[in-house]
Design a protein that fits this description.
Blueprint (H helix, E strand, L loop, with lengths): L2 H4 L1 E2 L3 E2 L12 H14 L4 H16 L9 H20 L7 H14 L17 H10 L21 H4 L2 H8 L6 H26 L10 H9 L4 H14 L11 H21 L7 E5 L2 E4 L6 E4 L2 E5 L2 E6 L2 E2 L4 H14 L6 E5 L4 H4 L5 H9 L4 E2 L3 H16 L9 H9 L15 H7 L3 H13 L5 H13 L23 H11 L8 H24 L6 H14 L5 H11 L22 H13 L35 H5 L18 H11 L6 H13 L7 H17 L5 H5 L1
Parallel strand pairs: 3-9, 9-10
Antiparallel strand pairs: 1-2, 3-6, 4-5, 5-8, 6-7
Helix pairs in contact: 2-3, 3-4, 10-29, 11-12, 12-29, 13-15, 16-22, 16-24, 19-20, 20-21, 21-22, 22-23, 23-24
Length: 730
Amino acid sequence: MSENSLNTAYLLGAFNNNLTRCKLPNNSEVLNYFMFKYKVLKKSIRSSATEVIKEVQDIWSIIDVPLERSQHVTKKLESLFIEWRNLNKSRFKKHCAFHISKIKEFTDKLNKLFDVRLKKKSSQELSPEQLFSLVRKNKGQHISLSINVEDNEPPLESIENVVDKNALSRALSSTSISFEEVSSCSGALKRTISNFEDELSEYSNDKKKINIMTPELTSALDRSNISSRNATYNLVAAAKSLGHDPTKINISHRVIHRERIKMRKMVAADIKENSLIVDNVILHWDGKLLPDCGGPHKVDRLPIVLSGLNYEQLLGVPKLDSGTGFNQAKTIVKALNRWNIVKNVKGLCFDTAYVNSGDENGAAVQIERALKTKILWFPCRHHIYELVMKSVAEVVWHVSSGPSPAVFNRFKQEWTTIDQTKYETGMDDQYVKKILNHKKQDILEFISLQMEEFQPRGDYKELLNLTCIFLGEILPQGISFKTPGAHHHARWLAKAIYCLKIFLFKKQFKLAKVESSKLTQVCIFIVDIYIKGWYSAPSSVQAPYQDFMFLKSLLDLKHINAEMSNAACTKFLRHLWYLSEDLAALSFFDERIPTDVKSKMVKAIKCQQSTTDNTRKFYMEQKDLKSFFNKDMSNFITQKSMILFEKFNLPSSFLDLPVNQWEADKTYQDSLKIIRAIKVTNDIAERGVALINKYNEGLTYDEEQRQFLLQVVADHRKKYPDCSKKNLCF
């Protein structure tokens, strides 16, 4: 493609690299200058429009008339660009009479003045001071602000009839500009203004009402899930309270609806165009069966999200024909290609369901095949730990059918009959006190640290509070209990929360003696083992060593309840992903691992040969668990573990240094920063599920608009994480 073709556009011709300042620009000149900044200089739509409008308003300021606000004129230019883009998309199609008329209408519009005045100003409305300002600014220059002035126009009234000579002479007395100079300019000026009157007449009616819809207002309305009709009520009331006359504002539910459609598309396009390109990103997805908007059936929705260092981007939540691994992979790869970010994907994070992790037909394998490269797998650690919790809880309450034990539902129904002031802590139970009393302080210190961290969900905080109460602590905010909520499989932490609550009120809630005894043991497991595992799960650096120590804790659980220990170990042995040769190298950056063990790990990554073809997961039989206590992290490292450094382009020269010098080494620090940014839980995709769940029905029934809507809301949430005035105003 030639350079000239890159600097031209359909219907527009060659781009302008500047605006002439000797006349007011028309639509064609402004749009061509915009295209130069957008196409040639590669700036965003918004920044290109903003820069062009600033220059246009500088030119118009010569006339000294009131001008529209910059954001309104910027929107006008963006609308003109969108109109051109729509015509450009269909330029190769067979043109019908309607399309030809649209092209003619657009080309006619190009020759018209790009008006930025606040309201129409005729020649009679120009004051002597404005004429004086215009002449003074252009002293000694030829004033040519007209466009296509016809020679056969009737003579205009002399400037002397408009401006009082004596008044103007007094105004000019302190300058070197003579009245004759003003008079000599008056013919051209009056001719110019007269020409503007005809050309701008069609704009005068449009300026009678103010269009208040902006991208930011559209985003706020969409995030608030407010329909266009309800938005009309709110905006009219707000206008009145601010002292504006609603009749002078373009407010109606139809106008708001149309503008929101246009704005969503524009904002979504801008988000995609200006999205940061991060070198190392992790791809997240999670399927959800939801009602099909406008129909009685349900469809599979697939939130697709990218994460990286200071980076999070929703790619979309498309519908699937079915939730098979093949369909998921096909949809994901299509989204990656659309965003042009295929080469940046270095890892996959997903729930460990077979549809995702299957060796032959799982979505992860299918994605690798489509992209023709090996990608590291980071299965969701919260999902893994929740499976362990489920296996322990089912030792007490066997689930033959249904999503959860029936006792949870019974407890939820009886909650209103329970006196919440009469609870019994774990420390009131002598059996619990004997086991946990010497560990209590360490557990409370861990909880205190977690309380200082940001907890993304309310149930995360609730479990920490319940654990403190179980250990006999009084919370700073006082003791209170939340009403029991959902307890199905998809509700993480529900089982742990229900078990602790049932224990605290077991004197008021009828349980069989065997159930009560086993419930106590489950609560010990939650407080002593599970809490640390769950809240440490999001750390990529700690993941391998955390799983290593967690498995040892599960083996020690046999001293409390052998059945629980066996159930938990059996489940966890199926999910030792982070002890695999691919991911065990994450532990090089874990400061908890002793120096001598890290030295052995360095030797292993340089010399230890792999003994398996499947490096994604560490496999171990239950019969081999006895020898597990004799292992350390170096037993999981081989030469193949270097793939972590290769995939993420991590410098590994620090491995040649003594371990005690790593923290001061820059290559180690750079690698640590990248490794810490790896998200090893799928919470980010869960938020995508919550997003589509909230906006699946209502606001729009158009699928394209729904995708724009989700992009707009996700972006608005990132910009404004809360509704504090500090965030909203700055």
